[in-house]
Design brief:
Radius of gyration: 19 Å
Distance between the termini: 33 Å
Helix content: 40-55%
Strand order of the largest sheet: 1-2-3-5-7-10
Strand content: 15-25%
Number of strands: 10
């Protein structure tokens, strides 16, 4: 692949959007490569980290040069394709962490908010600048942002095309934590390792119960939780972990069975 790098270490997959000369902007080729990576993730992966190559950008947006002369039909297809890729990332049965290491603008901010949660470096900058270019957000920004940070902040960011820095992103709940730039990936791996060390079936069930449950009313969501909870009691992982605790011995590593 030309624009995406991957590294699998133990059970943690790091996906790097790697077009630093273009500030990792998302053109069609990059999205297609990202789609192939997502579709190729197997059951041996327990957590994913998404980040950007170089020192300046996570992803600075969709490729404006590629979009400038699009027709209405082409723009609609491009939006649908990008949304499909981000939705596939969002729907992965394993947690996905965005490690935002610089500019996360437009499509870059939308990529970050398609992940389960975000951490960032002190030099990170977020924004949805589309209206300043005469367009709307097209990869989920008008939908996910309000669900994440609330309607008021989402409208302010989307309507003004304003950029916000890491401290404000933390304040409004766009990111969970802020780290010095040189420590970001180390901290991301620490979090990913903590996730990967837990029962993979239980983590996956937790993710689906939480994300799918948010789309339901509370009574339906609690039924969904009970279903995911009970499913875990069919696993070897549950039996071994609980037995080890009761027997006051170290548990064997989780096998995902």
């Amino acid at each position: 692949m030309n624009n995406i790098r991957t590294e699998l270490k133990d059970t943690i997959l790091t996906i790097t959007v790697d077009r630093p000369k273009a500030l990792n902007a998302l053109n069609r080729e990059t999205l297609e490569e990202l789609k192939r990576v997502i579709e190729g993730i197997d059951s041996g992966v327990r957590c994913v980290i998404v980040t950007g190559g170089g020192e300046k950008a996570f992803v600075a947006g969709a490729d404006i040069a590629a979009m400038r002369s699009m027709t209405k039909a082409q723009a609609k297809e491009f939006s649908a394709f990008g949304n499909g890729v981000f939705r596939a990332l969002e729907r992965l049965p394993i947690p996905v962490i965005a490690a935002v290491n610089g500019f996360a603008l437009g499509g870059g901010c939308e990529l970050a908010i398609a992940c389960d949660f975000r951490i960032c470096s002190e030099n990170a900058v977020f924004g949805q600048p589309e209206v300043a270019l005469g367009i709307t957000a097209g990869f989920g920004g008008t939908q996910r942002l309000a669900r994440l940070i609330g309607e008021g902040w989402a409208k302010q960011l989307l309507y003004t095309a304003a950029r916000i820095k890491a401290p404000q992103a933390l304040e409004i709940g766009l990111v969970n934590q802020v780290f010095p730039a040189g420590e970001l990936m180390e901290e991301a791996r620490k979090i990913a390792t903590a996730i990967a060390n837990n029962g993979p079936i239980a983590v996956s069930a937790t993710k689906t119960a939480l994300t799918d449950g948010l789309l339901l009313d509370i009574d339906e969501a609690l039924i969904l939780e009970a279903d995911r909870f009970s499913t875990c009691f069919e696993t070897e992982d549950q039996r071994e972990a609980m037995s080890a605790m009761l027997e006051k011995r170290p548990a064997n590593p989780f096998q995902g069975k």
